[in-house]
Amino acid sequence: VASECGQYASIAFNFTYEINYTRNTPANIAANQYPTHYSYNFMNGGFGWHGVSYFHSFEIARINGHPSVEDFGYMNSCGPSYWMSGYPKYYQGMFNKIDEVYQIPVGTPEGLLILKNWLHNHLTGDDVGGIACFYSSTPWNLKLLPQGTPEGGKHVISEFLSPATHSSTITGYNDSIRYDYNEDGQYTNHIDINGDGLVDMKDWEIGGLLFTDSYIGGVNWADSGFCYMMYKTLAEMTGQGGIWNNAVHVVRIKEDYSPLLTMKVNIEHNCRDRLKIMAGVSGGPGSSFPEQIMGFPIFDFQGGCQNMQGGWEPEALALELGLDITPLLGSIDPAEGATFFLLDYENDPNGWGNGKVIDYSLIDHMNNDQEYPCPETNSPLVQNGLTLL
Q1: SS3 state of residue 6
Q2: What pTM was computed for the model?
Q3: Burial (Cβ within 10 Å: 0-12, 13-18, ≥19) of residue 25
Q4: Quick check: 123 and 230 in contact, CB under 8 A?
Q5: Segment 55-92, tens digit of pLDDT
Q6: pLDDT beyond 80 at 381
């Protein structure tokens, strides 16, 4: 793993864990595991040259859902350019959505207590706790907890030194581990060891979190893939020993979500990062332009100048996708009917790309999955402009 660490922490670890916890389903089968590269490949520049913030991946899973390993493929098996094709795969992914993403400030004892309760019982008194993501430097500077202290001999990060360009996942805590920062032979949380005139978490030598990482060696890294980090790292500034923003991030899952209205689109284009796909609606039949437009964090001028499925092979030119447009139902009165629109905006002043909408349809999942095909097919995309169907 290199630049997709954010997707391992957020999707393969956090999202997979929390959705299976919420649904009480096993996470050791492909149908209940969620791959890194579905969301990573939309945001990585098209070829995997760029890292992707896990906030982008969370937003993709919140808006249009997330396919499983069973439908997409295992993690990075299809490479950094692949976009999934097939409406049924997108539709199945729409059931798997994030409800909310929360930030927990953890640089104070009060914030740390909130995190510990999340890890212990999801802040609800549950028998099972949650996990959390954070950004820091890559944890390359491993040290050992002192022998003769709790968990002595196990690995620990005492400080994160460089800029926060890496993501990991917190899985637990231990109030008893200790590390002697000022080498005075004592382990204290009540002495000003850094000389700033304050006694706060920056002075703590007792207690830490357990985290897992995707970057170095897998289960062969640290202690079977796990490592401790001292509570002190939560309070320090980024680049001076601390994690990014003195905060961690957790997710809650939509437990029982079903899409009500979706759009199936079969489209081809040879320079996909010049294209943005949207949906729209107007009240009443016969409208010529949408009153409400819905954009998506996918198919949004992304993926590099290559065919829709990635690469330049002819069979990758066309892609069949699915969009959950259920939110548009809130903009209309069902008694009056409505007109729905597919909007394809090409921003291509150099004329590098061209394509067409092979076909598209609405699927009403409230009424026996009734499908309404658009009568226009094989519609060329307007060059460097808006195609409205």
Answers
A1: helix
A2: 0.95
A3: exposed
A4: no
A5: 999 999 999 999 999 999 987 778 999 999 999 999 99
A6: yes
Rounded Cα–Cα distance for residues 95 and 115 (Å): 28
**pLDDT for residue 2 is more than 70:** no
- Pick the closest to residue 9 from 251, 299, 207 (CA basis): 251
Average pLDDT over residues 277-297: 95
d(CA 178, CA 149): 7
Predicted confidence at residue 286, as pLDDT, reads: 87
Specify the amino acid at residue 263: M
28 C-beta neighbours (distance < 10 Å), count:
7
Determine whether 223 is exposed, middle or buried from the number of CB atoms within 10 Å of its CB (0-12, 13-18, 19+).
middle
User: Residue 182: its pLDDT value, please?
Assistant: 97
Residue 272 DSSP SS3: helix
**CA 303-308-314 angle, 5° bins:** 130
For residue 204, give both structure tokens: 């703590």
**Alpha carbon separation from 137 to 134, 162, 213, 233 (Å, rounded):** 10, 5, 12, 11
Closest CA to 89 of 56, 67, 122, 121: 67
Rounded CA-CA distance 72/70 in Å is 6
